[in-house]
């Protein structure tokens, strides 16, 4: 039986009363309390400090672990619901508040644990070690929660700036159909002119996707039933050569806004209706990507990886209204490479010495390359840059409350074959956009949609001849690449005879050796341009729409 001094109580709990303990025991005690605070917040206080605080903290810890477990179960069962919690404007605000409160509470517990450790009682050499360990643990835990709250807050702000607050949309015939417009509002242009029009049609169950591109110069576009613009153009947008489909946006915003009361962007809405009527496909929402700020988004992603199939010029200053340009500022070389924002923008928009359809093919390639790179690691590590770029680049009338389910669909469809169609070459001839056959367009759209419906093992997915091929890195497009396949190299063709008109110069692209047998380099292309050898230059780079996303 231990003897006790009169009037004194001998404490035998070394965690709560470390006075008189050995240095080794004090060190062990310090790291034990620290580990308890990391693993089970509140348990250190319950064992060595304020038990009331410890009980409350433990209750919060148990509740937090239960909520986390529930979230994991929900994510496994219904990933869309979990994504909605992060993207929904109200739910994400609640999540930010909860994470912030937990981060603050955990930090308070770490500070109290530092008090309980009794640093002055430790050996001198162990004092900084324990303090540094505690600070690092607090940053790794409480700091991580705070950073997660910050990222969700940044995303919430970006989503609120980009997406609308309107009602959710329902699938039509089992699909969601979105119009993606590449808006180009340069200083030399009146209004924003969507030079790139693509429909992304997504199967509402499997996420399988079809990309349908519409040339900017399509004439006589048909407005969908119920469109106010049918009052102005009942026979289609047919006011002559000026009535190209990409002019609808500017005309409606300038002259017909009164037809769309309460609509934020009448021009975009009317363009969406024109695409719906033209394709015979109900378009439910639109996304506008500002091409002037597009490079910021690509840079935020860390660039895009593609395999370019031919030389693409970075056009010089525009000299007239007929497509004339000064000396190219540079050339994007063929082969595998990572394009930064500036070069990706030019790769997608350049049509000098090539056709609109080569450009469309390259744009589809860039789009698919971006999708391939949007993995959770890339998004988390570059989230703030992506969010900030997105607010400057993207506008949409998609409901922010439905964004989580669409992200889930995109994840489902990743790696699946992607159907592709162009209202022009290679699906139709080059004159088709000027004299479109809308019955033929509708039939081809039905074919592509049918091939992009269902799951990968669903027989419907291969029921038609739509161009849907897949590689390990994603969609490679038709004929082994997005765009027109290049012909075989003909290095021995006499250029002198070609210039004289005796022998035509076959179209390229010629990536290594030109039709005259001379190696192709950026310097040689510049020389051909500066010396006016445009026929040979055009032949070398023509058909440079071949591209494979990596």
Specify Rg, calculated over alpha carbons: 31 Å
Label the overall shape: elongated
In spatial order, strands of the major sheet run 9-4-1-2-3-10
Oligomeric state of the chains in view: single chain
Beta-strand level of the residues, as a percent range? Answer: 5-15%
Helix-strand makeup class: alpha+beta
Q: Largest sheet at a glance?
A: 6 strands, mixed
N- and C-termini, Cα separation: 78 Å
Which blocks of ≥5 consecutive residues have pLDDT under 50?
A: 1-10, 185-191, 459-504
Number of strands: 13
In round numbers, the mean pLDDT is 78
**Estimated helix fraction:** 40-55%
Number of helices: 18
Pfam family, one: LytR_cpsA_psr
Region (Disordered): 1-22, 452-476
InterPro entries: LytR/CpsA/Psr_CW_biosynth (IPR050922), LytR_CpsA_psr (IPR004474)
Biased composition (Low complexity): 461-473
Question: How would you describe what is shown here?
Answer:
This protein is an alpha+beta fold and 550 residues long. The protein has a domain at 23-162. Helix content is 45%, strand content 12%. It is built from 18 helices and 13 strands. The protein has helices at 23-39, 43-48, 51-77, 79-87, 89-117, 127-162, 248-255, 266-279, 291-301, 341-349, 356-373, 376-381, 383-393, 403-413, 438-451, 495-499, 522-530, 534-541, and strands spanning 175-184, 193-203, 209-214, 285-290, 304-308, 312-314, 330-332, 335-339, 394-396, 418-422, 470-471, 474-475, 547-549. The strands form four sheets. It has a six-stranded mixed sheet, sandwiched between helices. A hairpin with a 2-residue loop joins strand 11 and strand 12. The protein is elongated. The termini are far apart.
